[in-house]
C-alpha cells in the first residue's frame, strides 16, 4: 500500500487540485511548443498556450481521493491545423483509489458479509479508465485489498497504454456476486468473498488479491469443464482481442507488480486469473 490514498474522504464536490493540473498542462504545452529539437510545431505557428489548454474541462469527473492522470505525448498532427479551436486531446489514463464508503458497503452486501476474511476497512475501491471492445474509453471499477490497490492501478495504466480491450470492469455486486453471471458477462472483477472455484476454502478473490480478466476470452479450464461456457471458443487460445497469452503485455504488466497468472498453472488452467499469491 502506498501513500495515504485510501484514507481521505471522497469529498464529492471538491475538484481535486485543479491548479496543479493546469500547471501540468501548461508545462506540457510549453514543452510541446518549445524550441526543442524534434518538435512538430512549425516556427511561428505556435498558438498561444491559452486556447490549447481546454483539457481541464474533461478532468476531475468522478475523481476520487487520489486521482492520477498522465498526459500522452503531444500529438504532432495537431500543430498542422491553424484552427483556433483546440484539438481534442486523446483520453488519458485516469484512476482513483478510495475507501469503502458506507454507500459502497451497502452496495457490496452481496460480495461481503461479516465473517469474510478481510474487513471492509482493508479493502479499497479502485476506478480505472480502460478501452472497451468497441474501442471506446470508459471507466470501470474494482474492489481489491488495500495492499495491492496502488500496484493494480499501475497494471491498468499499462493495459490502457497497450490498448488492451476489456469488455466490462464492474463490481461483482452488479451481478449479485454470482461469479458465473459475472464471468458470463465477460466482466473483469476482483474482490468477491467466495469459495475457491471447484473446492472449499476461501478463494484469493475473497482477500481482494485476485483479478479475473475478460473471463470469456480467458476461461477457466479443468478437464472438460470450461467456465464460463462461452469461453469454449477460446480454449485453443486464438489471437483475438482481449485474449491473454503467455509473455504478452498483459502478463508482463501484472508480473511487474507481483501478480502471477493462472495460465501458468498445469491444472486447472485459469487464463483469466491473476493473483499476488500465485494461488
Ligand atoms: Zn480468479
TrEMBL record:
Stated name of the protein: Peptidase M15C domain-containing protein
InterPro entries: Peptidase_M15C, Zn_M74/Hedgehog-like
A UniProt-annotated Pfam family: Peptidase_M15_4
Matches recorded under SUPFAM superfamilies: Hedgehog/DD-peptidase (SSF55166)
Disordered as annotated region, ranges: 43-97
Bias type Low complexity, positions: 52-70
Every Peptidase M15C domain range: 198-275
Domain of life: Bacteria
Amino acid at each position: 500500500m502506498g501513500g495515504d490514498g485510501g484514507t481521505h474522504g471522497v469529498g464529492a464536490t471538491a475538484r481535486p487540485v485543479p491548479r496543479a493540473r493546469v500547471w501540468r498542462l501548461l508545462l506540457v504545452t510549453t514543452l510541446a511548443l518549445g524550441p526543442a529539437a524534434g518538435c512538430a510545431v512549425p516556427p511561428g505557428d505556435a498558438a498561444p498556450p491559452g486556447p490549447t489548454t481546454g483539457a481541464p474541462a474533461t478532468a476531475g469527473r468522478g475523481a476520487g481521493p487520489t486521482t492520477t492522470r498522465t498526459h500522452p505525448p503531444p500529438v504532432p498532427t495537431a500543430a498542422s491545423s491553424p484552427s483556433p479551436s483546440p484539438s481534442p486531446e486523446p483520453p488519458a489514463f485516469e484512476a482513483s483509489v478510495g475507501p469503502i464508503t458506507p454507500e459502497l458497503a451497502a452496495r457490496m452486501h452481496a460480495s461481503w458479509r461479516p465473517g469474510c476474511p478481510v474487513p471492509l476497512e482493508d479493502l479499497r475501491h479502485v476506478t480505472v479508465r480502460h478501452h472497451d471492445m468497441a474501442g471506446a474509453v470508459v471507466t470501470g471499477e474494482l474492489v481489491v485489498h488495500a495492499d495491492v490497490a496502488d500496484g493494480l492501478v499501475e497494471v491498468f495504466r499499462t493495459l490502457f497504454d497497450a490498448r488492451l480491450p476489456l469488455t466490462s470492469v464492474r463490481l461483482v455486486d452488479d451481478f449479485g456476486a454470482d461469479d458465473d453471471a459475472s464471468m458470463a458477462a465477460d466482466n473483469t472483477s476482483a474482490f468477491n468473498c467466495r469459495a475457491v472455484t471447484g473446492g472449499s476454502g476461501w478463494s484469493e478473490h475473497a482477500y481482494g488479491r485476485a483479478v479475473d480478466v475478460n473471463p470469456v476470452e480467458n476461461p477457466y479450464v479443468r478437464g472438460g469443464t470450461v467456465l464460463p461456457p462461452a469461453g469454449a471458443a477460446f480454449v485453443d487460445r486464438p489471437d483475438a482481442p482481449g485474449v491473454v497469452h503467455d509473455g504478452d503485455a498483459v502478463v508482463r504488466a501484472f508480473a511487474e507488480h507481483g501478480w502471477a497468472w493462472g495460465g501458468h498453472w498445469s491444472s486447472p488452467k485459469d487464463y483469466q486469473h491473476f493473483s499476488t499469491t500465485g494461488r
